[in-house]
Design a protein that fits this description.
The protein is built from ten helices and twelve strands. It has about 290 residues and is α/β, with parallel strands linked by helices. Helix 4 packs parallel to helix 5. The chain is globular and about 55 Å long. Bound molecules: NADP nicotinamide-adenine-dinucleotide phosphate (NAP). NADP nicotinamide-adenine-dinucleotide phosphate (NAP) binds next to helix 1, helix 4 and strand 4.
Length: about 290
């Protein structure tokens, strides 16, 4: 199959390109220099030229604070971008696989969110990503929207820069006698390698629709840090931080655990417990 991956040099895009290539597919790895998703002409031209059977969009403006400061740009990239891709994919009869986020929810539920739960984003990022979902769903029937959470991968996250949470914890542990992490935000850390495997598995079906796509289980950032230090035998004083130590400039859901209900119902869920994905990332087990 011919697959176009957008955001190909990003944290997730890098692993998706690799996973499709390992699967023997013909992968067109598109970076921001190759395509501007906010521009319909750029999108149409590139997809008409390549004519892939599947388009995977990982590109987004997802730095939450920057989205709040520049809502028009966030809307252009996160909402109109997927719309442009959906229009162009429909023209060439390609399937569009759009990556979305747990931040479409408000975190009030306190038990894992299923695909049928009503979204209620708390910030510009979540709102614009949700608009992107709606544009995709209303523009082309041949789509899969995958909502995921708390990604970490070997390639750096380009939007956020710096280290992912795992590498940051290991660095802080080397530099400091104590690490303090908040216990008040519950997520499901999801390895980009696992999510990439899920994207490939789903691409082999014609099961279109909305999917929650995260590792199994959940934890607070504090519990995530504790597991990182336990698996790497890192001896460090780890303490719970008062949320006031790291005041959030933008509201975020304090609970954004997703249940992969639709994937499971269709027998397509490939995710394991988040601790397994972390072990694989750390090189403790290899699948
Ligand atoms: N990271 C997380 O924890 C997380 C959690 C839930 C959902 N998500 C979603 O997962 C997806 C992938 O995240 P990631 O961590 O892999 O992000 P990333 O490392 O920042 O990669 C994003 C990629 O998209 C490209 N891009 C950005 N704007 C573009 C545009 N207007 N047109 C074309 N390409 C553009 C970037 O290129 P440049 O850097 O050159 O601009 C980069 O290659 C995003 O859709 C995000 O909303 C992420």
């Amino acid at each position: 199959m011919k697959i176009a991956v957008i955001g190909a040099n990003g944290q997730l895009g890098t692993d998706i390109v690799r996973a499709f290539a390992q699967n023997g597919d013909d992968v067109c790895a598109l970076t921001h220099a190759d395509i501007e998703i906010a521009d319909l002409d750029s999108v149409s031209r590139k997809l008409q030229e390549l004519r892939p059977q599947i388009v995977v969009n990982t590109a987004a403006m997802h730095h939450v604070e920057r989205c709040e400061q520049a809502p028009e740009t966030a809307y252009a990239v996160n909402a109109l971008g997927p719309r442009n891709l959906a229009l162009a994919a429909r023209e060439i009869d390609a399937v569009l696989m759009q990556i979305s986020t747990d931040y479409v929810f408000d975190g009030e539920k306190r038990s894992p969110y299923e695909e049928g739960d009503p979204p209620r984003p708390l910030n510009v990022y979540g709102n614009t990503k949700l608009s992107g979902e709606y544009f995709v769903q209303s523009t082309t029937p041949k789509h899969c929207v995958l909502r995921t959470s708390a990604l970490y991968g070997k390639a750096p996250c380009r939007a956020k820069g710096g280290l992912n949470f795992v590498e940051l914890m290991l660095k802080l542990a080397k530099e400091r006698g104590e690490v303090r992490v908040v216990d008040s935000e519950v997520v499901t850390p999801t390895s980009t390698r696992e999510l990439a495997r899920q994207v490939v598995a789903l691409s082999r079906s014609d099961a279109y629709g909305l999917y929650h796509a995260t590792a199994e289980g959940s934890c607070s950032w504090f519990e995530f840090a504790r597991e990182i230090f336990a698996l790497t035998n890192t001896r460090i004083k780890l303490n719970v931080a008062d949320p006031k130590e790291f005041p959030a400039k933008v509201p975020r859901p304090s609970y954004s655990v997703l249940e992969n209900r639709a994937l499971k119902n269709r027998g397509l869920n490939v995710f394991r417990l988040w601790q397994e994905g972390l072990r694989e990332y750390l090189g403790i087990t290899v699948r």
